[in-house]
Amino acid sequence: MGAEKQVALVTGASSGIGRATAAKLAEQGFQVIAAARRMERLEQLAREVKGIIPRQVDLADPEDVENFCRYIGELDDPVGVLVNNAGYSIRGALEDVIIDAARRLYQVNVFSLMRVTQACLPGMRKMRKGTVVNLSSVVGKLAFPLSGVYASTKYAVEGITDALRVEVRPFGIRVVAIRPGFIATEFNEVGNEMTGNLMERTDPEYQALYAASGAAVGKLFVDATVPGPDLIGDIIVEAVLSENPKAVYWGGFMSEEWLQARAGKNDEEFSRYLAETTGLHDLKV
Fold this sequence. Notes:
There is one protein chain. The protein is α/β, with parallel strands linked by helices. The chain has one domain (7-197, 226-258): Rossmann fold (3-Layer(aba) Sandwich). Helix content is 51%, strand content 14%. The chain contains eleven helices and seven strands. It has helices at 16-27, 39-48, 62-73, 99-127, 148-167, 187-195, 198-201, 204-220, 230-241, 255-264, 267-277; strands at residues 7-11, 31-36, 52-56, 79-84, 130-135, 173-180, 248-251. Strands 3-2-1-4-5-6-7 form a seven-stranded parallel sheet, sandwiched between helices. The longest helix is centred in the middle third of the chain and has 29 residues, at 99-127.
């Protein structure tokens, strides 16, 4: 499937996987609408890469999302490739999660993804072709302790993606899920910023939980080589250009190991495996 000067839309394009994907699609000849909050970064990308159209949108703001969707609907050439990349994480045991923070997380990771997809689908249906790429995560198939709310947004993305793939198949539209593992981007820093200082606000009984889990997960990264966002950008471009893309792709540090472990164990076995791996199986508080 060649680019043929199609219009592509990439959300969360100011950094990380989104930026890499927008640049790579533009290099393949797509006219790429690069959307994100940080306009100065998008403008810098447009200066560096031919074929980038910077467009500011705050996906945490429903009104701004509606304005953006009207813009999509008024394009002379419809979006033929949509990459729903924007998303972030908040962390903490469920008891510590601030509900307003969870609502904002769902607005960005789930509701805005749905709304932007809705805005792009009529044009794809009219063309009888198109590709929707939804960025899930390995945690779309398994939930790490202390990240359950974030994982739940990716579980939702997986469900939406699975249903949409079948719904729009008769119109010639392909739907792909991408499940990155750990990738070296700003993702962790943003997650820490959006979460705030958990150790200050949590009940002292949870502090041992956070410490044990942090130590156990930290061991996984000793001497590890964590790939950068180009790996996932290349996978996305591969899926977009393929005549018959796979339903799901994955890549990144620990992606294969975690997904194989989840697929190969029943629920009880996996629960024990996860507790042991994250240092919580034998912890008593």
